[in-house]
Amino acid sequence: MPEPDGFREMNGATLPASGVARDYSRLTRTLYTRESVERLTTLVVGAGALGNEVIKNLALIGVGHVVILDRDHIEASNLTRSVLFCTAGIASHLANRTPKAVVAAERVRELNPDVQATPHVGEVADCGLGIVRRSDVVFSCLDNEMARLELSWACARLGRPLVDGGLGRTNSSSGMVSLFPGSDGPCYACRKAPARRRQLLQELQGREDPCWLRERAQAEADVVSTTPVMASVIGALQVEVGLRHVLSPADPTRGEARRVTLHPGFSAETSSFERSPACPLHEAASVITVVRERPERTSTDWTPAALLDEYPGGAVLLLDWPVTARAACRACGAVFEPWVRRARFRAATCPTCRGSDLAEQEVVTAIDPSSPWATRTFSALGLPRAHIWEIASLADAAAPRHHVELTGDLAPRAAAGAQ
């Protein structure tokens, strides 16, 4: 079975500086000194209008490595709001449906050859935790609540600060930046009302209520109007908040939010928030503190069975989210193995007749040595590359869990830089 749809890694060599060295002297007396920022690795999730501004600023400041994750390709409507896509070759990119992440990474290297840029094409759940783990700070430039929640949980598990940016629906002149500091602080779900938090978590588990799904679809159909002006303001604020937190850390237990409104009247509000005691995403067992790196193993040559064999006494591999492993089409009777997250399965169609009237036959939340799926490679199962897999004991549910990273999926330079 192929790897997850749309997930590709494209590494590009640093482009020559055309004989022009970057002069960072104007940053010497700021927080963004060359010595402090050139060692940083940043992950930007979402390369739309907001992501373009974050990526541009990181490139100009000269951070060491910008990793860009986005699932979409460039469209004509991006060109009025996305500075990185306004290039001489844009007609070719539009015709070829070039992924946003790929073009954004190319532009980073053009803006500043001192910055390494790596694109990943895929969704948040397609991005292995090994990539998140190597990031000093993560920037969320997403317009989807479920993706925000997935990313926030990944950052909380790994103790990585997350800076979320959002553009308001009202009059296209407002936005908010929120800082989620890591494992000891609140996550994205903590800020949601209990009912909405429950809905989001049930959607991620693939247990949606049709009523609120219809309501959410109607809300998402109302596309948020964004301007390059507001994207510039919020994107710049995200970079300021994120780098300042990394270079001069504050209270790791409290989150911060900054809301900016430009019209009809200017206002800037700052607030702080704590972890919600009712949020279920802060179980101590889910926090990843010790990672066993396996640089000799990759998703294409290793299987869950081979991994579990290394844990005598009985062990099970836990999946982050439920996966629909087998399904049937009610229209044509075809039985197939989608092996996609249950939350994504709701958008699946029959590979035979393209019908959407599907029935789940098997949902997998864990793989033990006796599972029929255990002998397939991680890639064949469509599971994320460069992931950190969680291993639990079959005999003792209270025993500490082990975390194993398929480090071989990462580029050598990224693997060597792990903390």
Brief overview:
With 419 residues, the chain is of the alpha/beta class. It contains twelve helices and 16 strands.
Task: Give an overview in words.
The chain is of the alpha/beta class and 419 residues long. The chain folds into 2 domains: 273 residues, Rossmann fold, CATH 3.40.50.720; 125 residues, no CATH class. The protein has a 9-stranded mixed sheet, sandwiched between helices. Strand 2, helix 2 and strand 3 form a beta-alpha-beta unit. Helix 2 packs parallel to helix 4 and helix 6 crosses helix 7. It is globular and about 60 Å long. The two termini are 33 Å apart. The relative contact order is 0.13.
Supply the number of structural domains: 2
Q: What is the oligomer described by this structure?
A: single chain
Name of the CATH class of the largest domain: Alpha Beta
In whole angstroms, the N-to-C terminal distance is: 33 Å
Round the mean pLDDT to the nearest integer and report it: 88
- Regions with little confidence, pLDDT below 50 for 5+ residues: 1-17, 209-222, 413-419
Order of adjacent strands in the largest pleated sheet:
1-4-3-2-5-6-7-8-9
Structural class: alpha/beta
Estimate the strand proportion: 15-25%
Q: Output the CATH topology of the largest domain.
A: Rossmann fold
Largest sheet: 9 strands, mixed
How many helices? Answer: 12
The topology string of helices and strands comes to: EHEHEHHEHEHEEHHHEEEHEEEHEEEH
CATH architecture of the largest domain: 3-Layer(aba) Sandwich
- CATH homologous superfamily grouping of the largest domain: NAD(P)-binding Rossmann-like Domain
| DSSP summary, beta strand count | 16
Question: What percent of the residues sit in helical stretches (DSSP H or I)?
Answer: 25-40%
Rg on CA atoms, Å: 22 Å
Task: Using the alpha-carbon principal axes, give the shape.
Answer: globular
